[in-house]
Input
Amino acid sequence: MQRRPLQRYKLITCILPAGRGLELVEQVRALGVESANVHHARGLGKGSRRRGGVALYAQREILTALVRAERADELFEFLYRAADIDAPHAGMLLMESVRRAEPLTLPDLPDEPR
Amino acid sequence: MSQDIVVLTDAMMITCIVQRGLADKVVEAAQRAGAHGATIFHARGTGVRQRSLGLLGITVNAEKEVVCIVVASEQADHMFEKIHAAAKLDTPGMGMMYLTHIEKMATYVPPEIVQRYARS
Output
């Protein structure tokens, strides 16, 4: 394995209502954060619909992004605003430290002619 | 001028990986222990030594469910123990769980709560 200077990374996780993930991951990648993915989940929260006193699961999308530590706050703030996290039932945004990471790197290929 | 972001710093995340179909038990135990929400997604687990477990007649489903629960730091250990007991994680093959520190998080916080903490 090629040794490179140690880079610090953070993992940002954004739990979103279903349907918002793909659009946001495209925006994140446009910011230059390539290690960003979306996957499907289901979830419960304080605002979940209830039937017979039992909370019902709602569909969610989880966006995860591995980002260099120096850009982490910038991405956190971008997602907070882009996903309207301060609105009720808009989701949740988390940041965790990562001890060690290898981000996705793309091959350096020329764009195909349209 | 952009508005300030309200962030919470005293939170931890419990991640519990169980066999498919058992996530609801984990969520019920977490809710009884005080959790407000949970996120569940599907996964597939490999690496289980099925041969040795097979001799005991135990079948471990490779299809998994991953349950993520955000919890306040002071409740984290209590909730961890409740989930551990409900999911029978001390039995071989039943699953695994771990607790991680959340450096910071953001979600909707009612304005009256934001003002109360801003004043103090």
